[in-house]
## 1
Amino acid sequence: MSAATAARPAESPTERRSWLGGSLGRNLGLVVALILLCVVGVITGGDRFANIGNVLTILRLAAVIGVLAIGMTFVITSGGIDLSVGSVMGLATVWATTLATQTMAENSHWTVMVFTALAVGTAAGLVNGLAIAYGRVVPFIATLAMLASARGLAEMISNRQTQRVDVDGFVDFFRADLLGIPVLVWIFAAVAAAGWILLNRTTFGRRTVAIGGNAEAARLAGIKVQRHTLYIYGLAGLTAGIAAVMMLGRTTAGTSTHGMLYELDAIAAVVVGGTLLIGGRGTITGTVFGVLIFTTLTNVFTINNMSTSAQSVAKGAIIVAAVLLQQRFASRAKST
Amino acid sequence: MSALTTRSRAFGATVAISAAALLTTGCVSNEPPAEESQGTGETDSGSSSSNDETGDTVVIGFSAPAADHGWMGAITRAALDTAEQYDDVELRQAEATNDVNMQISHIEQFINEGVDAIVLLPFDGDALTEVAMQAMEAGIPVINVDRELSSPFASRATILGDNYGMGVSAGTYICEQLGDNPDAVVAEIQGIANLPLTQDRSQGFADSLADCGLEVSTQVAADFTIQGGETATSNLLQAEPQIDAIWNHDDDQGVGVLAAIENAGRDEFFMVGGAGSLDVMEHIQAGDSVLEATVIYPSTQAADGIKMARLIAQNKNMDDLASAGVPRVTQLYAPVVTADNVDQYMSIGFRS
């Protein structure tokens, strides 16, 4: 891929290694890839691609999966995996739109629906965490079980029907614009910023990285690995809850089919972003770029009127290319 | 969902004439190429009119769920073929997706580009309503196909298959066969159970069975896939040692359903299909399986959508109607195909 050749000169002499090995160096490949995509978009789409409305369309699409991917970044950094975020998100949209919840919301305030979704998401995440940290179930299996049961529970609660959101305050808030930018995009930005601070500037983040790098060493260093693991899955559940609220705002409907296969989109964005799948290193900035690359790709494809089957093939190829590129950067950053 | 059903039935009655007109002319004329397109030329000459003359070029955005099974694939194929027939139609095809978040984004993109009309087959009608309303507010007519949006303000025209009618047709046929046996065991294999269209089909089926004193004994849901059909049917056959009739909602998953029936070596019952795939019609014609009949659910709906979008964008009227303007709602007919009349319907069957 040409992004590789374009970005290679940035590999630096030793004294600049620490800086380039940091945020920018690791994300340079992604920045180049995103810029290339935008160039392709501008060349092929012209004004149809390069206008504010289209950029906002890309960002709105990125917002929901982006929030899930932020939570996923923590899980993967800690050496785990969470396959349940899409299902949990679906469950949260259903729970927050049941007749009972909506009636309560209408009688008090629409934020009741928000709290419901967040609580359901967090609770499901904590159940994952309990099974993994204290029940010693492998994360893949524990969250796979949650994937199945959350979807089933959502179907039971909703009676397999789509539930419209009738609380006007809720819909008005989440469909609104603030300073010309949709509320959903602001939420994504806020979650990303909070995630960045949490991962890079707090003990919570350092412990997450330590556990992912070597859980035994982390335990010997005095980190309460089990409790911390519980928190991390709770956090992923919370982001699923936030994503559910955003999805409700976007679709004005809660259904058990929401978030189908979102876990894979989120994992793909995280890994393309440069977080190691085996844990021990994570980057929120990379994840945000990963999400943006995917959504921009979709947008450029649509603008070029590509046949849908060709789009899928191209998308798969680009995922592999991006990961190869990313690995190259990662190994160079380590070996130099 | 009963409110929805009643409404669509009421609409259906008011536009019965237009539906009939569509079936006999426009609908039949746009075959997916699977049938060597031999039907296209002949039938097209029947429906060609001043409306088919090249007019102002219009840009039509088309968005549909992923073509993950035969019927949906045929929908998209027929739509693309129809668009190609017209020199004055420029079709923008959005990535087919089962993710409503992404489908909303595609419609936003169409609005942003300022296309002349949007043909929308939503994955979930409720979830796409809001963005369709935005398109309408932006002055872009939305032609809603197959799965109904939840607000009348969200579309300029709506083309629906008759899901309730499918259930009624299937139920009525089973009643004719089993009516004298009140203890008959009738099983139903649904598609995706939480879609309104599935609930409409099941409601129509239950209502028409009730007319002859029968009821659905067992109901299982596949997910419109061959794999799902196989799994659901295997379980169903395990659970019910004796069955008299099965209605399978969808011929695509029917491939799996038939496989499961053959694996189990069961043939004490007869089966009615749904949608009208060519494979099923061939089985009906040959009489070599438990399949006795199927109920048509036209795979040419989106092609009709493209035609209507073009007419609306060009400010034309629909042929053979005295009233002005393209109708608001068009509901297509769901006939039963049996060995007696299968030859007549082979031309609109689709390959799954």
## 2
Amino acid sequence: MFIFRFVTIAISGLLASAVLAAGEGAAQLSPDALVQSVTEDVLVLLKQNKGSDNTQKIIDMVEAKVLPHFNFNHMTALAVGREWNKASATQKETLARQFHDLLVRTYANAVNSYSDQKVRYKPFKMKPEDTDVLVRTEILQPGGRPIQLDYRLEKMDVGWKVYDVAVAGVSLVTNYRASFNEEVRKGGIDGLIKALRDKNVSLEKNPENKR
Amino acid sequence: MKSIHLLGVMASLALLTGGCAGQAQRAPVAADPYEGFNRAMFSVHRKVDSAVIKPLAKGYDRAVPLPAKVGAGNFFDNLRDLGRSGNAFLQGKGEAGATGMARLVVNSTLGIFGLFDVASEMGLEAGNENFAQTLAHWGAPPGPYLFVPLMGPNTPRDLVGWSVDQGLYPLWHHVEDQPALRNSLAATNLLQRRALLLPLDRLLDEASLDPYAYLRDAYLQSRVAATDDDDPASDETSPDTDTH
């Protein structure tokens, strides 16, 4: 039963990555198919690396497989809120880079500490002219209630990109707004950049504080 | 004389609620008027949790095999379907209410006293209604954010809702006159729920610049999402309403 599921996931993951690798322009996946293929990829990677304490390996895999489908500029703009417009182009770029590093590391650590979970994809409907959609999924964990995991995607020239992720209705992006605003209030945009950089450095120094 | 006394009280209050030097200049957050007090309670909570509750939950998580944990989780959760169903009816959600009652019946019988969640396999999905959401449905405002040690993030509306839901929780009535059994059931319930959160512990410290604000805003966002569940379009506006 479990083996069967594993094999199905592995095969669909391989197929999905083959499709993705086949060329971004040629195979523009629909938003729900994109979310599903990336999710299955992650599940396969996690199964392959189950029990390994190698956070860096998972970070590298997340960078390669997951992040190309995220629009980090948009995510950072959402997290910073109205202060975003006061940032220069260079500041924006640095901010997005630092926010990216923070999210990658926390995401890799978070998924790495879970096991035995399954993902259910909720029915998805969209009109052909839609450019901004919500794809809903659910993480089923044994002995616990299902956790809602929703992705918001926008249509760009290169295909659909995720710009917001919400866990149980909580946006992982806008949840930063209060603390980001506080840093901007104290030290301007550069203060926020510094706070993020310090945070990333401290996480990098201390990557293996396993449970 | 009197003013000196007052000064002393204010100074000790400031010490109690301050925690660290920079916080006095923090910009106020509308939903969290008692932020200083809440931050103090948050740090108390984290100390108790890391000294006592978290180690116990880790022990539970390691010692109890997965099927037993799933069974325990299902058992406690099954009885919550009564309250969820009742609250769904109180919010005029007849279908969700009926589904909840069907779940309770199916899982208590076919699922052997709720140890197995047969109803979900049959496609009867668990609801998420509670009395706090019923209060919200009928227009009660959440009130100021409160961090309650041992319970965690709260609002007055959620505290009232929680105590009503506890009163409706059938398990406690059955073991009222057996304190030993009641206490061990309550402890198992606590550890089981805490163990589910273990993977998130690192997230709070790693992901956030400020764990207190991160948890508060996540909690307030999740309450908005839970009370706006009839209207998915509101997802887009809800995050903005939390700050300033």
